[in-house]
Amino acid sequence: MSTTVLPSYDDVVERYAPVIGLETHVELGTNTKMFCGCPTDFGGEPNTRVCPVCLGLPGSLPVANKAAIEATIRIGLALNCSIAPWSRFARKNYFYPDMPKNYQISQYDEPLCVDGWLDVEIVGEDGQPELFRIGIERVHLEEDTGKTLHVGGATGRIHGATESLVDYNRAGIPLVEIVTKPIPGTGAAAPIVARAYVTELRDVIRSLGVSDVRMEEGSLRCDVNTSLSPAGSAEWGTRTETKNVNSLRSVERAVRSEMLRQAAVLDSGGRIVQETRHFHEDTGDTTPGRSKETATDYRYFPEPDLVPLAPDAAWVAELKAALPELPRLHRRRLQQEWGLNDHDMQSVLNAGAVELIEETVAAGTTPAGARKWWLGELSRRANEAGVELAAVGATPAQVAELQKLVDAGKLNDKLARTVLEAVVAGEGSPSEIMAARGLEVVSDTGALTAAVDEAIAANPDIAAKVRDGKVAAAGALVGAVMKSTRGADAKTVRSLILSRLGVEG
Length: 505
Known about the structure:
- Helices cover 38% and strands 19% of the residues.
- It contains 17 helices and 14 strands.
- Strands 2-5-6-9-1-10-11-12-13 form a nine-stranded mixed β-sheet. Strands 4-3-14 form a three-stranded antiparallel β-sheet, with no helix packed on it.
- Helix 3 packs antiparallel against helix 4.
- It starts with 8 loop residues before the first helix and ends in a 5-residue tail after the last helix.
């Protein structure tokens, strides 16, 4: 790693203007691969989901997957692209161990979708929403590569490994590549805009139901391009391409890291080398990959075994008419229905809780009740455990059931938190836990009166203070009753105590 002293981020954005660009690969959730009938499910034993076609054996012929073509067109339409009336596949020739054919069937000069855009919103430095329109250069369809595993080393990379293994299960899975146009004018917000774009793109694709877009499983992968030029310059700087960034947080960190590194190089009189770079999750740094100073000759030529694609205009119109409500519009509608201001809605977004709250409300509780648990206790637990909110251990249905019990007076907030803790621990539903532990709020007046009388009898000095007008002292008696009943309603208990002592509250 370099020991160069990096400038501060504020100093970098004052003197340099960043330009970013993102290339995002999405594995489609089709049942079979792009050009053969092999299954696409994740996690099988290595090299068990392969056939002569996806292994590129002599004499095998590809057949295009219609479902993948349809999914690509739907993605293009959702990104406001024009759908080409005629496009074709090409052979992209390069030689990697995880490429069984030594070429990739992709699209080159005639992609399926072109010239679109996606609006993303961030919170500006003034706390107000700021909109960026990200231009989409192209959306094209191709096949994924296999996966190379480097073993015997400390880093999982080829350097230091003793051997490399190749799993071709992923080779041939339908892959959509979405390429943005260069994105200038983001200034200090460049890392945040990059993350917001990938987040919004992921939500759009998920809403279409064409991919699970799980970055941790590789079904969504992002290459991040970054360049710097002196502030006010009309020319853009030399870009680097940080490959296969695998989380939303890392997209933001990769842009920021490259901005700092490139500024340090330029400040020292050096020049930026056009190259790929690897992002390191542990340090947040990038290191060189391979040089891209000269254009790589992939020797593209039209795929001779596949006919061109010519989507029928009427079919494209049907697909467009059937698009679901897109996430940004959907969020705006929910914000209005939930009665939230921009700041509160942003808190929901930052927590990743939109869908969870929506599903909790659908399960039968109020937006306020759902927000209370997801943005409070559950968000705290997720942060402590270092997991996404959806993986914290409670489902929307369980949270809705919990809030219903509170609303019905069967649980107070303290008992509800105890029940929720057990839900997260996997002990069952809120009702089951409440019954098993005997945690229901004591609402029987006779039982409460008996508990109150016992507390008064056991604490005569405190009772005397209350009778003398020191009403605040009743808190100790309330606590005693709450302890003995393990769940009485505090307001009801206090009212009973004052009544039994002949004092007005």
